[in-house]
Every structure is written in C-alpha cells, then in structure tokens.
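User: For documentation purposes, I need each entry recorded in a consistent format: the amino acid sequence on its own, followed directly by the corresponding structure tokens. There are two entries in this batch. Please keep commentary to a minimum and don't merge the entries.

Assistant: Recorded as requested. Entry 1:
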Amino acid sequence: MTQTTDFLAPARLGRLALPHHLVMAPLTRNRAAADGTPTDLMVTHYTQRTTAGLIIGEASTPNAVGQTYPNITAIHTDRHLAGWRRVTEAVREGGGRMFLQLQHGGRVSHPETTGLTPVAPSPVPLQETIFTPRGHLPAVVPREMTVADIRATVADFAAAARRAVDAGFEGVEVHSANGHLLHQFLAGNTNRRTDGYGGPVERRVRFTAEVTEAVADAIGADRVGVRISPGNTVNGIEEDDTDVLYPALVARLRDLDLAYLHLVHADPDTAVYRRIRADWPGVLIGNPVLPDLTTAGVTRAAAGMLAAGADLVALGRPFLANPDLVTRLRLGAPLNPVRDRYLMYTGGATGYTDYPALDDQPSSASMVALDGPRVA
C-alpha cells in the first residue's frame, strides 16, 4: 500500500477499494439475542456506521463453548448466519463493507452462561469474576484441551469462516488477542502444556497458526486477517517473552498472504511495533492508543499511525460514540463523548444507537468553533 499520512485518502485492502484509511474496530456490545443471533437493534447500529472504510464486526463465537458473556454474537448455526446476513445486507445497501471477527473465549467463560465447562490450553482459572446471567461469579477451572479438542476447534473456526462468507461478510478476522483462547495459547502463564502446543514460543504459536491456516484454506487467504495484542495483560494474561513471541508468530503467518495483521494498542515508539512492521510484508492495521478523544486528538493519532508505517487505522471508541465519525473528522467538527462505560454492555438503544449525528444537532459551523480547527 502506498504510504500516506492522509487518512481520508482512498485506500485498498486486497481486492477491496476503500474510500479512506479508517476502519471501525470490532466492538463487543452484548446486544445479540440470548442464543447469539444478531438483532434488529444491531442492524440499525451497523447501518449507522457505514461510512467507515471497513467495519470489522464484533467478536462472534465459532462454537457454543467459546461464548464469553451473555448476549454475545455467534456464527455456528444457520440462525446466526441468517441474522448476520440481515446486518451485512443493510450495510452493503448503505455503501459499507464488513469483515467479522471470530473469537473463542477459552477460560473467559462460565457454565452459567453456556451450560458447559470452559476449555483452555491448561487448567489455569482466570483470577477474576466473570459476568453471567446471574451476575458476576467467580471463574471456574477450565478443562485442559486435548489434541482432539484442538483439532475440533480448528475445524469450528474454519466452519464459522465459511458461514461468515455465506452471511455476506467480505472476510473474517481471527482473534488472537485480549486474553481469549488463542492468546491463552500464546502466553506462558496460561499455557503450561508440555506437548506440541506448549513450551517454546514456536510451539505456543502453533494453535493460532493452525486456526489461521484452516480459515484461509476454507475461504481464501485474501479474506482473512489476524488480530494480536502484544504485551496486553487483559483477562489475566502475562507475557514475559513478548519480544520473541510475536516475531515467532509473524514468521508462521507471513507467508500465508493474508488480508492483514491487526495490531491492538499499537504504539510506534515501542520496539515490538517496529519489529512487527519490519517483519510483516502485508497490510498492517494499527489500532492506536487514544488518550485524547477530541477531533484533534483522533486526527493526530490516525495521521501518526500512518506516518509510522501502518496501512490502515482502526478506531473503536470514536466510532462507538459517533456514527458519522468520518464526516466529523472531514469537517473538523467536535466528537460526541463516550457515555458511561456501563451503557456499552447493558443492552437496549441507550448508549448504542442513540448517539446523535451532526444532522441531529445544531449547525456544524457553530460546533466547529467549540472544538477548534482540524489538526493535520
């Protein structure tokens, strides 16, 4: 991809022509039906945000045991497929394009939610409570996956990818970040195996690599991205070898000719970012740290991410609170603030589909004066 710092300039992602460089990051919002099927409210939410260059749909589980919390989306039944197809058709009609993130929670799950004992690389429980239909409960000890379990889960990811394409998605993102199952295999504190999937980094990256390879075989490598979050401690993850772990993973993935690699909390000033950018030959999506959620702050972060070698920029909270984010950045108009974090996951329209667009507010000219000029 031709390097630029103008995030509003046209871009490409493989065979997809994108109107600009801004990607809507996957945002789990707990608005699905109890069985994981997307709802009417979700159709509205995604349709409101079709000006994103690419929408990466929220984390969807490839099997029942992979569900993390109540009302999380899924993609392992025909009902799920039909529900997601309603979303993709509405987004496409609005001029948008979507990938779907595939996420297995691993030990970040609970029998009160799924009726099943969570699975993980090793029987190491999460040292936190987990939200369930009965409220927050202590995490349970997960069942260590057998090699047969691993192979079945790889197959489930591939089947979920096929369903996603059948549902109208342009491709899928394999979630190997944020302390979920694939990340649990990567991290030494959650992976204590002594077989071919544990121990040295070359064996700990194997599960993510096999899942990605199977998904690429199922739908084509140009439809597949992978998300990673080096050094992220969310969900009890501890990495004491980040500097060698991720180069090993990139080495396993780099020759697959994937659509992209998505780097969470990308910080261009870190050695791990510079190493990944140097080692990864394809499209890199950078999800920057955003300490300043004003128009000027988001603009600086997006332009800086491109200047540091990223090809596309993924934004989460700005798209969450601003259905017309791209228009606001183009005009230099102020951004809606993100409301109470509690509203992100409570269900219903409040804090989800009721964020106003510029057309619903006083004139944009008067609002620009409140936030100052656009910063390039």
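Entry 2:
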Amino acid sequence: MKKIELFIHTKEHIQKDTEPTEHMKEAHRRTIWLENEQLVTSIHSWLPADEMKVKKIVEDFAKCQDLELVIYDRYRFWDNMRAIFKGIKTTPAVILGKHRFTANITHNRLKEAL
C-alpha cells in the first residue's frame, strides 16, 4: 500500500491569571504550573483553518485512492524532527511518493502526482 504523509502544526494558547478565581478553585481544583508569578490555568490547542482544510482534503484523497495516511504534527518533538530531516520548513505540507506539496494543495494536484 502506498503512503501519503501530511505535516501540520498545532498551535496553542496558554491562559494565565495572577490569581485563581473562586470558580476555578471550585470547578478545577488543579494548577498546571506557576510561571513568572502567574498561574497557568489552561492550555488550548487548535489547528489553524488553512491546515484544517488541507487535512480534510488529504484525508478524503487518501480514502478515495486507498492510500495509507500518516499525519505528523510539528507540535510534537519527534514529528518535528522527522519534518526537519525531510526538509519540511512550512506547514501544511504533503509528501506523496517523490512529490512534495507545500502550497495550493488540492485533490486534483494530488491526483496528478499518482
């Protein structure tokens, strides 16, 4: 089975407060860590809209063409090392065989690479 590799990069937002609110004390009962005298109360991760769109395109393409889809998230250390090793500098990026796509990733462009 042929494989298609997708490289994405999850973003994160760290919510910081100087003091936990009563609601946080009651509801969560946890502190993640203390950083520069500010209480880190939560970490929110998300995938940017352009990367979400490409992910859906690649998932649909892999399903239609019966390809093995491997997704690497540059947010994770080892996935980032793999991207560096393969020369991926921007995301989203797709590797299909010997073809690399970093811009204008569409179903038709992927089909032409097969």
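Summary note for entry 2:
The radius of gyration is 19 Å.
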